[in-house]
Amino acid sequence: MHASASKREWTFYALAAFFALYVLFVYGPMVVIYMLSFQGRDGGMTFPMNGVSTHWFADLVSPGRAEDIPGSFRRSLLLAVIVGLITVVLCVAAGLGFRRRFRGSAILFYTAIASLVMPGLFVGLGVSLLFRLLGWTTDWRISGLFTQLTWTLPFGLLVMFAVIGRFNRSWEEAATDLGATSWQRTREVTLPILLPGIIGVALFGFTLSYDEFARTVLTAGAVNTLPLQIWAMTTNITSPALYALGTVTTAVSFVVIALALGSIALIQRRRSRRNAAGE
Fold first, then answer.
1. Residue 41: inside a domain, yes or no?
2. Max CA-CA distance within the chain?
3. DSSP secondary-structure letter at 137?
4. How far apart are CA 17 and CA 95, in angstroms?
5. Residue 20 maps to a domain
């Protein structure tokens, strides 16, 4: 008995050590970037740090910079919001439509997620060649948007299917018995219940678009999105400004994730209160 307990204890410590190494491997480089972004004014790209300051954050928006960092940030943010909204609308509609089996549904489903198999660079190349063949100019608002949707829609669809798979149809049946129309049932029963999953789909669409590089590099046109701007900076920037930009973009991602998770937690709390009041 004692040997068995000792074995379980060693197993626990081994798994805990493995998890700690995993966390260090994933987040260690990020922590290094965050620390070096606060390098002093005369500091370099590596340790040791030469003082602590926010000079390199201010340098990102200084008038003398050749890179259009504020513009690329605005473009990426706007594109991510648009991609997130389109992903939500199409994935929710597809998820609700696929609840009822129809002829060819399996083929349509696998066709919809097939773009996940294709490397993103080849998807962007194909869209770029198609626009050139049609005589159109590639632009981040059109070709960039279309290409990113080939990445976000399959993920959003998979998430939506998982959420709808746990949906209890008896709630809709109860609404129908009470005289609700199809639209009232969808608006007042189905969508509110699915709302946490819908927020998750929006989060997927936003974050996947916000940092997408491979599918955008050949379809953004004459201007850069933020990932393309960061890539361009790695070839000619030898200052901690690059680290500061990485810190800012990561902070924006964390804020969006926190807002999404906070919204889901608030919805769940309100539901718990309503259920408790109903009992």
1. no
2. 77
3. P
4. 41
5. no
- Give me the phi and psi of 129, to 5 degrees please: -65, -35
The answer to whether the CB of 240 falls within 8 A of the CB of 45 is yes
- CATH number of the CATH domain containing 91: 1.10.3720.10
Give the residue from 112, 75, 54 showing the smallest Cα distance to 209. 75
Spans of the chain, pLDDT less than 70? 1-7, 64-66, 237, 275-279
- pLDDT of the residue at 83: 95
* pLDDT for the residue numbered 92: 92
pLDDT, position 201 = 93
Q: Which residues of 56-92 are buried (b: 16+ CB within 10 A; e: fewer)?
A: bbebbeeeeeebebeebbebbbebbbbbbebbbebbb
- How many domains are contained in the chain? 1
Amino acid 273: pLDDT: 76
What crossing angle do the helices spanning 241-278 and 226-233 adopt, rounded to 10°?
150
Q: How far apart are CA 273 and CA 259, in angstroms?
A: 21
**Whole-number Å distance between alpha carbons of 159 and 181:** 27
**Which element (helix H / strand E) includes 139?**
none
Tokens coding 133? 């063949």
Position 275 scores a pLDDT of 64
For residue 274, tell me if it sits in a domain.
no
pTM of the model: 0.85
Q: Which domain holds residue 186?
A: 68-236
Q: Is 39 helix (H, G, I), strand (E, B) or coil?
A: strand
Assess if residue 213 is contained within a domain. yes
- What are residue 52's DSSP bridge partners? 39
Report the SS3 class of residue 223: coil
**Cβ atoms 218, 200 nearer than 8 A:** no
Nearest to 123 by CA among 135, 82, 131, 229: 131
